[in-house]
Amino acid sequence: MAITEEPLALESGDGPVTTERPLGVFTRPQGGNGWRDWLSSVDHKRIGIMYGVAAMFFFVVGGVEALLIRLQLAAPEGTLLSPDVYNQIFTMHGVTMIFLFVMPLAAAFANYLIPLQIGARDVAFPRLNALSFWVWLGGAIFLNTSWLVGGGGADCGWFCYSPNSGVGFSPTNGVDFYAVGLLILGTASLVSSINLIVTCLNMRAPGMSLFRMPVLTWMLLVTQFLLAFALPVITVALFLLMFDRLFDAQFFNPDAGADPLLWQHLFWIFGHPEVYIIILPSFGIVSEIIPTFSRKPIFGYSFMVFSGIAIGFMGWGVWAHHMFVSGLGPISVAAFSLSTMFIAVPTGVKILNWLATMWGGRLRLTTPMLYAMGTVAMFTIGGLSGVTHSLAPADTQQTDTYYIVAHFHYVIFGGGVLGLLGGMYFWWPKVFGWMLNERRGKVQFWVTLIGFNLTFGPMHILGLQGMSRRIDSYSPGFGFELWNLVATVGAFVIAVGTLLLFYNIWKSKKEAVDLPPPGPDPWDARSLEWMVASPTPEHNFDEIPTVEGMDEWWHRKYGYDQDGNVVRIATVEEAAQPGTATGVHLPSPSFWPLVVAVGLPLIGYGVIFNLWLAVPGALLTAGGLYAWALEPVDDPDAGHGHGDHHDESDDDSGGDPEAAEATEAEPVTAGASEES
Questions:
Q1: What mean pLDDT is predicted for residues 388-398?
Q2: Least crowded by CB within 10 Å, which of 233, 441, 509, 590?
Q3: What stretches of 433-564 show up as alpha helix (H) in DSSP?
Q4: Domains within the chain, CATH numbers bracketed
Q5: Would strands 2-4 and 20-22 be described as parallel, antiparallel, or unpaired?
């Protein structure tokens, strides 16, 4: 399987050394092949960009599904969609927006920014990082092929309650695609979460202690722990559902003595932490944007970190408030009512700290800042409407009404999506090397915010009036007509805002040719990613920085005079790294993560239609893993000298926990200690 090359003569005179070069497919690809370079890339930045592009594509898909829902409900007795198709559309809308848009968009920020914010060259396991993206993309495509070969999409809601998800009520293969597709997506998320946890814990730059990490990195780290513990729960539930449907098991069938509430418990044990999996990255983004444009350090850094950790812990103890009407009993209802009230406390801490950060600051109302402020306001509304669910009588009235739809979207869209869109505007120059137009960005923000409130604000009223969710039409005379029409108009206003976003990207790209480059730090920001060139060099840092305090990059630009006033001590150009280093050791590309990922959807088709179809997928996955294991660390033909491990000479103590511990004990400069 291998040939021996010519012996290498050593200058030391110790004798010849032979190197073995794998043949053919086991040779690692080289860069510079255009689009092929993206297919084989293990660069965390490229993977983050691919996550973001794919997520925005599915944002459009989910948005079209939402518009169809709103057109159906714009007037009484809508006939645009049949009841069956409507059920499929609103189910796939929820699945698409949660699993194919918001989560991967958050993953885009995590993949791109975590190594930069902690001063690392890359993630801990670069090929696993590529695998997570390709598996996710394969699962996303697999889910949507149900429209073509599965008899339509799943029709049981994004939570797919049993027994509605059983063969008796959903005889097509849509729910099968839902179960298998989410298993594939869960595999991707689990791989990614473990990779990013190890990266945060083991790849930090010298001096970057845990409590010097930016708040965004902390929130992303908590999110990865939530994923690591929540995904096994939903994995078990999906396997049970799959066996019920495909192999005639009876895990949820009440006629066979089973309990359909088992599905609800398993789903919501995953489902409520899932809300915070979506929200916490947005909280982290807001915690980076507000200090930057308030010209102040984040107020109460420790409280911000611990409140995020508290949200992660407490999120596991509130799931049953989704089940108050299922007959849990008074003791369970009382316990989960209290836990639902208490989880508002750490969230309130974050809101108050954001307000305190802005208080007395020199605010710059840029587009990212507008999005951050909008996120705080909209999430506050969504959080307050959520606290009402802690009161069992109120929850009983609100359950399965449009009040729940309103609350959910104020939290997920208002608290999650708006924050992520603000992050896009904030880090866009760092990723691509050119700015998005501010004037058009502000117009787009206001159009989106107005459309959002027009869409989901009236749903609170509709819910309190008694309009049920998951209905495909309603009769006239119940007072639902006006607010449904307003909501539909609002949905199209959001669509206009989305089109304005894409137009801004296209137009700003054309204008950037005639504009000066934004430089490493166009916002005068605070964290380490802004000390490298824009767009970010392949190697990230010319030299791994030594961190001496929180907001390290800010303290390299500013200090304090004798009176304690902030003074500039260096320009951005003086403090930033030029990004011109050569010969930096980096991970080599690999096609095998893509090959392994392609096999999983094929296995899924085999499980649903015919087990013999799973054989090619299993062979492809197993063969890809085999080739992955035999792939050399370095390709002798690659001129970059990259390998699939990190050169510890580049990051000093970054990979050595003992060395890192030693650096953490070093004294902090006076200026840094004042602001940390």
A1: 87
A2: 509
A3: 438-465, 481-512, 552-557
A4: 47-523 (1.20.210.10)
A5: antiparallel
